[in-house]
Amino acid sequence: MTATIDNKTARRAFLALQGLSDPPHKGQSRGDLMETIRRLGFVQVDSINTVARAHHQILFSRNATYREKNLKHLVERDCHLFENWTHDASIIPSEFFCYWRHRFAREEARLQAKYESWQGSRFLHECDGILDRVARDGPVMTRDFEGDKPSTGWWNWHPSKTALEYLWRTGKLVIARRDGFQKVYDLTERVIPDHCHRAEVEHDTFVDWACRSALSRLGFATRGEIAAFWDLLKPDEVAAWIAEYDDELETVLVESADGSKPRACLRFKDYPRLLDNPPEPPGRVRVLSPFDPALRDRKRAERLFGFSYRIEIFVPEPKRVYGYYVFPIMRGDRIVGRIDMKADRNADVLAVKRFWPEKGVRLSKAFLTELEAELDRVRRFAGVEGLEFARDWIATA
């Protein structure tokens, strides 16, 4: 008989794997931070800085003692982390670099064809010239190529920007650091530790690692969710892995938050006992990044939390339901609302425009006190002096 996991257990198990059940105020060393990122697998990077950049907010939401300088040290001085692509640009443990070589090989032909269709044969010549320049003169940035045609959009990048992106996406260059938020590129062998970038992994070993590491971080997952986690594998590779290791896996039915038909998922038969009886997450309110890994798979998040979410950055303002960049609000193991706010650097305040509670959330005095306490924590993290609420900032039905 197929086992069924009730929604609360599934929700809490996933949050425990996501580091959202850990003590939120426990002192965090650089080693602790590295372990958090290793547990998550990756942390998405995004340029939008409405309150704080996504990677910083993701880590702060798990531990309020997080400090940006520690992440910078791990990336730029220790070289324990590198930046490349999962489903999007992300910070990834350098020990995984050997597996990314398989992505680089796949991306090379696809991106070469794409970029040559824009810029013709000069594209590869530009790549060779940039590699020679970096080898001779050291790290470069896009702005170092001032003689090129200015870029007016991704479809019209100048040749050197296109080449730099290609060389980064295919592993020939890496991001050594960021100046502000601008990428500084250097040769891979100068940045990635030798034992990480020189290691070679056979294809079958790569597929096995990608599937196991994804499923262990998800706890339970469909075939599509396993493939999507790292975005490294094709669906048929995951299907073949499942067939090969069928004796290690079992099917479970995971209940959805809305009471609809349970979803059939896979998990390891030696699924950690902790996750059969997961801990209750801290009851505190916390603001999540729109790019938080717990919510990245929107369909999975909706099944587990009953929370439908999309970013409305590219939605014309008159058609937005909520706002340009709205943050999910979690309390304990539930998503309880979303909030539109911005760190106004000129006014030196965290300006809270609107809070929309989820259906059924009671706006008690205790809850609102907890919410304002979390907003004050975010204010301090964002580095602004005051907390300013718009009139009628709490939406009512």
Overview of the structural elements:
This protein has 397 residues and is an alpha+beta fold. The protein has helices at 7-17, 30-40, 54-62, 68-77, 97-119, 122-137, 159-169, 188-191, 194-197, 203-218, 223-230, 235-244, 273-276, 298-305, 365-382; strands at 3-5, 43-44, 81-85, 89-93, 173-179, 182-187, 249-254, 263-268, 285-287, 326-331, 334-344, 349-357, 386-389. Strands 9-10-11-12-13 form a five-stranded mixed β-sheet, with helices on one face. A hairpin with a 3-residue loop joins strand 3 and strand 4 (89-93). The longest helix is centred in the first third of the chain and has 23 residues, at 97-119.
Brief account:
The protein has 397 residues and is α+β, with helices and mostly antiparallel strands. Helix content is 41%, strand content 18%.
Short key terms for the protein model shown above:
41% helix; 397 residues; three-stranded mixed sheet; alpha+beta; 18% strand; 15 helices
SSE run: EHHEHHEEHHHEEHHHHHEEHEHEEEHE
Cα shape: globular
| Residue-averaged pLDDT | 93
Kindly estimate the percentage of residues that lie in beta strands according to DSSP. Answer: 15-25%
Strand order of the largest sheet: 9-10-11-12-13
- Count up the helices: 15
Helix content: 40-55%
* Largest sheet entry: 5 strands, mixed
Rg to the nearest angstrom? 22 Å
- In whole angstroms, the N-to-C terminal distance is 44 Å
Instruction: Provide the structure class.
Output: alpha+beta
- Number of DSSP strands? 13
